[in-house]
Structure formats: C-alpha cells, structure tokens
Amino acid sequence: MYELIVRDSQLRWHNLDLLPGEEPAMNYQVNDIAELKDRQADYSQNIKLPKSPKNVRVLEALNVFEANTLLPYRTIQCRLYSNGFRLAGKGAILIIDRVGDYIECHIRSGNVDFFETMNNRLMEDADLGSTIVGSGALPPSWVRRAGVALGRQFDEYKAGKHYFYNLYAVVDRLVEACGFSLETDLPTTPKNGDWISLPTMNAHRGSLSMFNSEASYNVSGMVQYSYDRWYASPNVINNGLNTLNTGAGYLRFTSNITGKIKLEFNASGDITSSVTAADYPVIYEVKKNAEIQVLEQIGQGGQSYSFAGSHKDVIEVSEGDIVEVRVYIQRRSGLGMNLYLNLTAGINITEQEAEFIPLNGRLYFANNTGFETYLDLFKEFCRTYGLTVL
Question: What is the gyration radius of the CA atoms in the chain, in angstroms?
Fold first, then answer.
C-alpha cells in the first residue's frame, strides 16, 4: 500500500487520496560529489491523483481556474511510503504538472535540496562552538587541544598547544543543521579516531570582545597650577583583561594583537577662568609608541565657555605597541591658572581585527576549518572516505 503525504501552506500534513492501483515508483540517482554541476535528484514517474474532495481541499482547489492559490508555484513538501518503507523522505517535494481529468504531478527527492542548502551556508556562520585560547576550559567533545611535537606554531600561548577537530562529528553537525541526517557505513575507528588540524587561528565575531576596555574622566571644581598643561586623571572602568592601565594623567593601552583598534572618545563640560583674556582649550591626544596619532581641540577655547565633542579613530597596531591617551587643558594665554572646571568624558577601546587570536581570546572553530561553505567540507569528507551520496 502506498501513502503520499504533503504539507499544506499552514504547515499541516495530510494523506492524499491515490487512484486504485497507482504505484508511484522512484528512480534513484547517485551523485558525483566532486562536481556541483552533476547534482541530480531522485524522481518519480508521473503520478495521477484523483480530484477527490480531500485532494482538492488540501491542494487549495487548484482545479478551479478562478481559485486564488499559488500552491502550484510553491515548494510542496511531501513524503512517499510503500508498506511503511520510505521511498521519498525529508527534502522531497511534490511538483504539480497539470490539472485535467486528474491532478498530474511527480516527486523530486534525494539530495538536490541538500546540496543547495549546504552550498548556500558559510562555515563562518556555523554554530560549532568556541573555546578560550590558552585557558584550562574544556573545548567541545569533538575538539582536542594537544601538544605539538615539532615545535611552535606561533608564539608562547601556542607552544605545545594546537587544536584538532573530528571530521565525522563536524560533518554530522552540519548535515543536521541543514535538516538532514547523516547515515554512513563507516566503521567506528575513523568516526572516532580521525582528527583534522585547525589550519588557522583567525579572529571572528566575539573573538576579541573580552579585551574591550573603557575609562572615564570626572572633574568638578577649582583647578590651580602654574604650568602650560593640566592633565585630567582617568578612571578605568574595564581594563580589558589588563590591556588598559593608568599612569600619571594618562591611559595606557598595551596591544596584545597585530591588527586594528578603535577608539571612541566623547567629552562635555564647561570652563570658567578668573584670568582676563585667558585661553584654556581642552585637548584630546592619542600617541602610539610616543608618536602623535590624534591631536584634537574639544570646544572653542577662551576664558569661559562650554564644550562638547566626540572623536572616533581606528589605529593599526602591532603586538606590544603602546597607545597612550591624554585629556588635558592647554594654557595658550593668561598668567598662571585659576579656573573652575566641569569635565565629563569617556573612552572605549575595541580590538577590531587581529591576525591571530591572542592569549585568552575566543577561538571559533567554524571560522578556522579552512573551508568556505558547508558543502566544501562535506565534499572533502566524501573524498576522504570514498563515499557517494544516495
């Protein structure tokens, strides 16, 4: 006995009526994994369905010319069984060919939808988990962190530590993510024992987020000094795992990456001086390895004024570079200094890009398998074990 089950536009499943004696046999194709152009689908011979009340209702009266339905032009998911044995399962679609005395259709099944889905999904977007580089945290069960016998891959945090992933386990996760299940005749040994080295340590979304740092400036009251500059003292809110520290009137960021950092600064307040014809502007200064990168005046300057401003800068850094931030009042005219200052300011430092994930950064496995799409990795899996897709 044959059963043809379809899903309607409301995502409900229905058994369709079949003509007595109708035997919708499937023709099965074997695909060449190496060539995308050779992808084929399993297909059935033409099927004739009676225009029974149930079929007409489930298929949205597609036999009526005036019917307001797009069902014939949509993907109609279906399943086909013979005496409980599945002939066309997940990924099968029912295609309406024409409607006359009967509803004529056929079934497309197999792996065409599977290939399309895998080819359209990027590995970097796969949810394969992550781990903290250099920490004692256990990686997922399908990832191993092992000693490297032939020296160091990069620097100290990678010395003796490298990451490997189980090929079968990763492919199984990818296939499942596409709505299919992986069934092979591979023995247990390659399933559990074959491990592939992660070829890269590329930073990806969130890899560097733990190094985001933040500081603030809050000054309110009388300021007195006789020098040309008065430096505001910062308060560290988040030190970004010790990448950000303070000195005498400055912030010091010590780069743990080779890449780019983004600095976002904002300040507001007011200055009132008792010195006639005084000019005391607020200055925002950024240096990298003692060389000025940013030098901006916040506000117009003068004897008494309010100020507000912001600045965003991206700076290229190498590991070990020192980036210092200073906020100060510059005396351009006036003798001595006796002024009232309100200053509220903040700065955020974000590591945006990195050649390699630094110590305590987050390693995302999917971004470091060396493959671009799900299908690229799946093809390599099939080549490795000489598998074909049925």
Answer: 33
